[in-house]
């Protein structure tokens, strides 16, 4: 229908269906001009935004939000627009959130009868509190509803001119507070009892002078950025973020901060991920590239080492330790997890390191040798020990997949037992255990056992013959 389907393929469009109401940014006719508008095309009377309230908007996402009082129900849409500040140091675009009242009936004059009268917009700010880096370009938005509308979350994916990206999280309670309490740009008079952009029950909306506030102080969530941010409503938010290398970072929000749980390489050729959709009921993530679509379970508990400490240290809300295995919560809810600040270390049994755990390796004198230990957690420290002496530490804060120790020329002092130990949250585990041996000694040990066995067999044969002829 008109205003619902675009006349030509166009990515700068939004359509929101809320019961009998339909909201859209699509032109109703090809002769409507080039200025985009946000419209109500079905239900409650047709309305559209004034051509002066947005400057070349690029729409991102829209949603509706129900309040306790139906006359306070709101519409929110997120967009980028040209920055009115044209100074060289100012960003070219600004990210915004706009608010409209669902009960808006338009203005009273002939010029405003078909226009929204409750339009308000505010600036979305996304700043890294550590580096103070700004992220100005809103790329995508994902909504997470809650029982109380004030606690419903907005996950915004931002980029900047340096190619970095971040996810900032806002609550609709904070956004609502900004629109209700912040001063109105360009208005210096006393704050009215009912601010512009609001609706009083049984009365006409208060016309908006189109102010621009500032939606400040979002909670910062660091991440590698990506094309989408689906999240599943378990204990602890679990966003899935995708960089431009065909992989997915599974992230969890916990009481003590944000943790990147695991990185999953989805496409073997590192095809960029174009979209991600989460099926909440089945806990399945659908990942699409330009050539294929894959289905990934959110409970990939096999990605962690199948021991108690590694499973619990992963802090994956979908997984926990039970019955000697790292199990999905879809199989059982009676599992050991570490999603809060409670002490858990004593709940896992410690395993003994046995002498035969060491892998014997034959190395010739004056040869080169690499000791390799795979980095499984960027929150752990990794150390190489030679005969219980520390010889190498790896900084896991930098992107790397292995902790190497290189011996350029093997001497007799280099022979012995090497152990790679990871330590995280008070738990230590030996990941690699190698026993470097002299090549000749190694060959002697390998040949010595068969020789001893053969000697015993010969002795038994002599004894048996002696008894036979006795």
TrEMBL record:
<dbReference type="GO" id="GO:0007229">
    <property type="term" value="P:integrin-mediated signaling pathway"/>
</dbReference>
<dbReference type="Pfam" id="PF13895">
    <property type="entry name" value="Ig_2"/>
</dbReference>
<dbReference type="GO" id="GO:0009897">
    <property type="term" value="C:external side of plasma membrane"/>
</dbReference>
<dbReference type="GO" id="GO:0007411">
    <property type="term" value="P:axon guidance"/>
</dbReference>
<dbReference type="InterPro" id="IPR016201">
    <property type="entry name" value="PSI"/>
</dbReference>
<dbReference type="Pfam" id="PF01403">
    <property type="entry name" value="Sema"/>
</dbReference>
<dbReference type="GO" id="GO:0001755">
    <property type="term" value="P:neural crest cell migration"/>
</dbReference>
<keyword id="KW-1015">Disulfide bond</keyword>
<dbReference type="InterPro" id="IPR013783">
    <property type="entry name" value="Ig-like_fold"/>
</dbReference>
<dbReference type="InterPro" id="IPR002165">
    <property type="entry name" value="Plexin_repeat"/>
</dbReference>
<keyword id="KW-0325">Glycoprotein</keyword>
<dbReference type="InterPro" id="IPR027231">
    <property type="entry name" value="Semaphorin"/>
</dbReference>
<dbReference type="GO" id="GO:0030215">
    <property type="term" value="F:semaphorin receptor binding"/>
</dbReference>
<dbReference type="GO" id="GO:0005178">
    <property type="term" value="F:integrin binding"/>
</dbReference>
<dbReference type="GO" id="GO:0045499">
    <property type="term" value="F:chemorepellent activity"/>
</dbReference>
<comment type="similarity">
    <text>Belongs to the semaphorin family.</text>
</comment>
<dbReference type="InterPro" id="IPR015943">
    <property type="entry name" value="WD40/YVTN_repeat-like_dom_sf"/>
</dbReference>
<dbReference type="InterPro" id="IPR036179">
    <property type="entry name" value="Ig-like_dom_sf"/>
</dbReference>
<keyword id="KW-0472">Membrane</keyword>
<feature type="domain" description="Sema">
    <location>
        <begin position="1"/>
        <end position="298"/>
    </location>
</feature>
<dbReference type="GO" id="GO:0050727">
    <property type="term" value="P:regulation of inflammatory response"/>
</dbReference>
<dbReference type="InterPro" id="IPR001627">
    <property type="entry name" value="Semap_dom"/>
</dbReference>
<dbReference type="GO" id="GO:0071526">
    <property type="term" value="P:semaphorin-plexin signaling pathway"/>
</dbReference>
<protein>
    <submittedName>
        <fullName>Semaphorin 7A (John Milton Hagen blood group)</fullName>
    </submittedName>
</protein>
<dbReference type="InterPro" id="IPR036352">
    <property type="entry name" value="Semap_dom_sf"/>
</dbReference>
<dbReference type="Pfam" id="PF01437">
    <property type="entry name" value="PSI"/>
</dbReference>
<dbReference type="GO" id="GO:0030335">
    <property type="term" value="P:positive regulation of cell migration"/>
</dbReference>
